[in-house]
Amino acid sequence: MNDENKQRIALRGPVLSFRDDPFIAGDAAAMHYEADGLVLIDHGLVTAFGDYQQIRTQLSDHVVTEYKNALIMPGFIDTHVHYPQTEMMGSYGKQLIDWLNQYTFVTEQRYADPAHAAMVADVFLRECLRVGTTTASVYCTVHPASVDAFFNAAQSRKMRMIAGKVLMDRNAPAGLTDTAQSGYDDSEALIQKWQHTGRLSYAITPRFAPSSTPAQLEAAGALWKRYPNSHVQTHVSENLHEIAWVKDLYPERSNYLDVYAHYGLTGPKAIFGHAVHLEESEWQHLASSGSAVSHCPSSNGFLGSGLFNFLRAKQNPNPVRVGLATDVGAGTTLSMLQTMGAAYKIGQLGHYSLSAAKAFYLATRGAAQALYLDDKIGSIAPGMEADLIVLDLHSTPLIDFRMQHCAGIEDAMFVQMTMADDRATQAVYIAGQLAYQRD
Ligand SMILES: [Zn+2]
């Protein structure tokens, strides 16, 4: 095969994508499912997607790979995850603030060592591919070298990734703090070095309001104003003790989100992790400002944080952009399939039954919309980047048995999000190139 041929590939099999938001358009109208689908890819971009019989005439010298008993779909997008915490997943027995002090702030000090950061970044991205996650919005640590290590690793895999240096200038150990000025300067240097290098984007990353002084949040807002193409990522309203602490630290602000709004840190491309205990006025500000939230269900269960309010988040009119996320290391898995299963359980505890279509949407196109990347990733359509995964719908003997009793694609999707894990990832394509293949 010559190089030219290698750039033109086609995948045939059952294909799922989303045309629209199922929370608004309804599940059936939003889904685009082809039982015998064909996806044509040229130099990393999708050029056509449709029913095999209808678009097969567009095949020329494409190398065609056929997948049976599988589901070809957009790669998963994890909208909130801490790569340095990969090594501390499953740390026992604390809620947010104690968990940060006892585990996170100990672990993250190791990332002063660039070699350690590079080693863990490599493990993290290897695991992302194994679970079919092709894009993530990633927290590094306070150390600029932790960002260099991550972006170098992502760059070598040609993955579309967002990441940023954590900003913390109080309420953390000395080894993990910067200052308002040094945090600004280091972040600016990283933006100039990495923003829009290949497929990489920078996120200005204050950890959360309690670990930044007002001066630091003000500097972060000024930095975003100067580099408005950057993302902003932080945490909001995860835990009741945290919320009370924010009220103590910022008594002049009307609520937690208002702290960020005051310093110019809300708006399009700002994404807020958790958003579990928001007041109605906070929901309204998220919607009207175009800000997004990350729902982190396995983390919220693990730390006992609370139940995300799907109904309010996606309420019509004024729905908020929502993406699903693992929040590793408080999250208990990097698998977005398992995260969808966790989201279903969180919904059930709040008397809301999240459908399979809506869950898959939140992990693909919905997540891309939350990150304002839906013109590039998250769905399969002409012009989109070909970050695709192939799910094996029969990845364990038990799932194989269960699948014999599935009535249709939505049944099959629900079984996958309830029962499947990394073993279901059969293949991953990054920008049209095979990047992972299960044995
Ligand atoms: Zn987090």
TrEMBL record:
<protein>
    <recommendedName>
        <fullName>Guanine deaminase</fullName>
        <ecNumber>3.5.4.3</ecNumber>
    </recommendedName>
</protein>
<dbReference type="GO" id="GO:0008270">
    <property type="term" value="F:zinc ion binding"/>
</dbReference>
<dbReference type="GO" id="GO:0008892">
    <property type="term" value="F:guanine deaminase activity"/>
</dbReference>
<keyword id="KW-0479">Metal-binding</keyword>
<dbReference type="InterPro" id="IPR051607">
    <property type="entry name" value="Metallo-dep_hydrolases"/>
</dbReference>
<dbReference type="InterPro" id="IPR032466">
    <property type="entry name" value="Metal_Hydrolase"/>
</dbReference>
<comment type="function">
    <text>Catalyzes the hydrolytic deamination of guanine, producing xanthine and ammonia.</text>
</comment>
<comment type="pathway">
    <text>Purine metabolism; guanine degradation; xanthine from guanine: step 1/1.</text>
</comment>
<keyword id="KW-0862">Zinc</keyword>
<dbReference type="GO" id="GO:0006147">
    <property type="term" value="P:guanine catabolic process"/>
</dbReference>
<keyword id="KW-0378">Hydrolase</keyword>
<dbReference type="InterPro" id="IPR011059">
    <property type="entry name" value="Metal-dep_hydrolase_composite"/>
</dbReference>
<dbReference type="GO" id="GO:0005829">
    <property type="term" value="C:cytosol"/>
</dbReference>
<dbReference type="InterPro" id="IPR006680">
    <property type="entry name" value="Amidohydro-rel"/>
</dbReference>
<comment type="similarity">
    <text>Belongs to the metallo-dependent hydrolases superfamily. ATZ/TRZ family.</text>
</comment>
<dbReference type="Pfam" id="PF01979">
    <property type="entry name" value="Amidohydro_1"/>
</dbReference>
<feature type="domain" description="Amidohydrolase-related">
    <location>
        <begin position="72"/>
        <end position="422"/>
    </location>
</feature>
<dbReference type="InterPro" id="IPR014311">
    <property type="entry name" value="Guanine_deaminase"/>
</dbReference>
